[in-house]
Specification:
The protein is of the alpha/beta class. It has a single domain, classed as TIM Barrel (Alpha-Beta Barrel). It has eight helices and ten strands. An eight-stranded parallel barrel has the order 1-2-3-6-7-8-9-10. It has a two-stranded antiparallel ribbon with strand order 4-5. A hairpin with a 5-residue loop joins strand 4 and strand 5.
Length: 302
């Protein structure tokens, strides 16, 4: 089970973003989903050769990890699990960004329990924290890696950071914004592929979100000019319709084909969402189409 290089791994081009498994757990989640629905969704993703599942404790305040652990009970060796440390919370569920080494190690152990596993394939520091140097945060994690509790280490939301011992980099990338680029010596993962539903067309200007959906009350969502993005997306969707291209397909392939990132993460919420994989790479999408789509959402088209 030990690998000396991430290039020895066989990793699906599409990764499963697990925030959608949070359900009513709270934290960073996107609406209701039952244990049985989550279980079926994970199994169907595996059937469609998605083998990487990206998780974090803040997804449902641990609920997404618990559900993934249940779903992978008899399929652990078929999956690669990503989890993270550094985003903690207090008893009142107030979020605490903290890369304290001891707290990060505690989070690792809690994640292992919830996921019902002896090891996590890729373990990341979730966000930068100016209070702690990365070398300090990584000391106990490197020891955990030596002990076999972690196979690879990574960074999420640190941009195009290059540091010895880090094989995985994760950042936001979609038609609206990108914080990470492809790198020859790192495995680069994109989150925010559909920009929380805006680029799939599922979010409308008048959308009403469930109480268990972080888009209902989160200050960061209210400040994200999401309604303006929805309006800008109209021109993109009209353009894609004229090309007979599915918006989800376009958004995924913008990251994998045009930006050449190693993997793009998608937050599937129901089995029907996985059907796009059947025809995902069945047509050619030109660089000129990707450039035009990018210009349309950026408001640069004349």
């Amino acid at each position: 089970m030990q690998f000396s290089n991430f290039k020895d791994l066989k990793i699906s081009k599409i990764g499963f973003g697990c925030a959608g498994l949070s359900g009513s757990g709270g934290g960073y989640g996107f609406g209701e989903i039952s244990d049985s629905e989550a279980n079926s969704l994970v199994h169907r993703a595996l059937d469609r050769e998605i083998n990487l599942f990206d998780n974090a404790p803040i997804y449902g305040f641990g609920e997404a990890e618990r559900r993934l652990g249940l779903a992978l009970k008899n399929k652990r060796h078929d999956a690669l699990i990503v989890s993270k440390c550094g985003v903690n919370w207090h008893e009142n569920k107030r979020v605490d960004m903290n890369n304290d080494p001891d707290k990060c190690l505690d989070q690792l152990h809690s994640s292992l329990k919830r996921l019902k596993t002896d090891y996590i394939d890729i373990y990341m520091v979730h966000w930068p924290d100016s209070k702690y140097e990365l070398e300090e945060t990584f000391k106990p994690l490197l020891k955990a890696k030596q002990d076999g509790k972690i196979r690879f280490l990574g960074l999420s939301n640190f941009g195009n950071f290059d540091i010895d011992g880090i094989d995985f980099l994760q950042g936001e990338s979609n038609l609206f914004q990108s914080t990470i680029d492809s790198q020859e010596n790192k495995f680069t993962q994109a989150w925010g592929t559909l920009d929380k539903g805006i680029l799939s067309g599922s979010v409308k200007v008048d959308s009403v979100f469930e109480n268990s959906d972080c888009r209902k009350k989160s200050p960061w969502w209210k400040k994200s000019n999401w309604k303006e993005k929805v309006q800008k997306s109209t021109a993109l969707f009209n353009f894609l319709k004229s090309r007979e291209i599915n918006p989800i397909e376009f958004a995924i392939r913008y990251n994998t084909d045009y930006r050449s990132l190693s993997q793009t993460l998608c937050g599937f919420k129901n089995i029907s969402h996985l059907e796009i994989l059947d025809t995902l790479w069945s047509r050619e999408i030109s660089d000129s189409d990707f450039k035009e789509g990018h210009k349309l959402v950026q408001g640069e088209h004349e």
